[in-house]
């Protein structure tokens, strides 16, 4: 029988060790994948100077006058790329207290009439008129995606697979989504808004998330097997890496997509900023999971913390539809405007209607 090993902190892995002592690195990574679903990574190549510039770029963007931010609102595009105001996003039917700017690698529109609807997610970014914004965030995208690619090779090795085993699940030139996020502190919120920065969720359809906690605030929490919320504080020089439901599915649940949330920053501490890249998996067809060695399947945790997520059953059959339904459900205004029939078919109703 599987013995669940619970965690009360998030492991810190050092990429330098992947070169210096690979077996040790891979063994620590294997532990993190199977038992935690989260780890910090240090020893990466993304410079502190660049990250300071990225943080300033995020601050400058959210400081723009509201009408300028609204000119790049997600509502203008079926891609769900662009700005969303605070309170316009839902996690499990509750409002998240965060502002966001979603972006992706710069791609032309993919969809044409008759093609699958999920292809409408791919298209150009909505650019604000802000000096240096575009090169800075596209550079982040490129560097974070390189890191994610390097890590998926190590993940494959840590699961006793060839290092390129996951590569076939990522199409060259496909979309990888990313976002800048601002969480206002509690004193900057309406008391009725509560303290949900983002509600408990798992990252949907992606392989790995690369998360930069740009300010030193507490707030990110990860749920362990016994349901306890474990803090994942910002640690200088690191990214937080976590597993998406795409990777979990592709490795037969041997790497876990762990539930996490963000609590709004304490009163008086100012806004928390973070930047996330979600390394995508191909959405174009039904995917078949990898063959995982039995000794690792034997280590699979018997109980995953609150693993429920919407549309889970859709992923195995149609990952594109799954990704699209998750977008429609989190950003209802955009979803209902651009995909009215799908929203209706799946019972996704407007943001201010009674909770189901
Ligand atoms: O902002 C953070 O620290 C986490 C954000 C997150 O989990 C998400 O957007 O999926
Ligand atoms: Fe997340």
Automatic annotation (TrEMBL):
The keyword Transferase does not apply. SUPFAM superfamilies: Clavaminate synthase-like. GO terms for molecular function: metal ion binding; oxidoreductase activity. Residues 174-281 form the Fe2OG dioxygenase domain. InterPro entries: DIOX_N (IPR026992), IPNS-like_FE2OG_OXY (IPR044861), IPNS-like_sf (IPR027443), Oxoglu/Fe-dep_dioxygenase_dom (IPR005123). The keyword 4Fe-4S does not apply. It comes from the Eukaryota. Pfam families: 2OG-FeII_Oxy, DIOX_N. Keywords: Iron, Metal-binding, Oxidoreductase. Belongs to the iron/ascorbate-dependent oxidoreductase family. This is Fe2OG dioxygenase domain-containing protein. The lineage of its organism: Eukaryota, Fungi, Fungi incertae sedis, Zoopagomycota, Kickxellomycotina.
